Amino acid sequence: MATNSTSKLFHAGRSLLRGLNSSSSGMLRSPQDTACNNFLAQQIRTFIQMRTNLKVVDNSGAKRVMCIQPLKGKKGARLGDTIVASVKEAQPGGKVKKGQVVYGVVVRAAMQKGRCDGSEVKFDDNAVVLVNKQGEPIGTRVFGPVPHELRKKKHVKILSLAQHIA
């Protein structure tokens, strides 16, 4: 008898949850699926931390780097922060070679960043521009959009090389 009443309560609660968790396509999701999807979406949009792979968006010769260490902050790097990275893929004949340790400035981050006017900026990928120890870009061109928040972080040279300022 007790199992019958708990079964009815379970079905009633389940039907209430179905109404709350239904998606726009009409498919019904369980609470575990929704929590899992939220967790995965949250994992993608985090700080740039150790072992994060980043795309290189200048013509220095590197294609992909892996973050060794962000230079500021305990959690990780955000837009405009400098990181130490190792080159994982490089074009032949470029200025930097595979395995070389370089500095880079984060110019695009998947994690959202709030602006002064209340809007938020986030990008589809994590991208970096390689710089030397003095903070000057190694390459002579920067591809893709670059946020204007780099001006506050004193990376004006990167902004002047960029094709599009977002």
Query: Beta-strand percentage?
Result: 25-35%
Judged by helices, strands and strand pairing, the structural class is alpha+beta
Helix content: 10-25%
The strands making up the biggest β-sheet line up spatially as 1-2-3-4-7
Residue runs with pLDDT of under 50 for 5 or more positions:
6-27, 39-43
Outline the biggest β-sheet. 5 strands, mixed, barrel
What's the count of strands? 9
As a whole number of angstroms, the C-alpha radius of gyration is: 22 Å
How many helices?
3
Brief account:
The protein has helices at 2-21, 31-44, 156-161; strands at residues 53-56, 62-70, 82-90, 101-108, 113-114, 120-121, 127-131, 142-146, 162-165. It is α+β, with helices and mostly antiparallel strands and 166 residues long.
Report on the structure:
- The chain has helices spanning 2-21, 31-44, 156-161, and strands at residues 53-56, 62-70, 82-90, 101-108, 113-114, 120-121, 127-131, 142-146, 162-165.
- The protein has a five-stranded mixed barrel with strand order 1-2-3-4-7. Strands 5-6 form a two-stranded antiparallel ribbon.
- The model is unreliable at 6-27 and 39-43 (pLDDT under 50).
- The radius of gyration is 22 Å and the shape is globular.
- The longest helix is centred in the N-terminal third of the chain and has 20 residues, at 2-21.
- It is built from three helices and nine strands, in the order ααββββββββαβ.
- It has 166 residues and is α+β, with helices and mostly antiparallel strands.
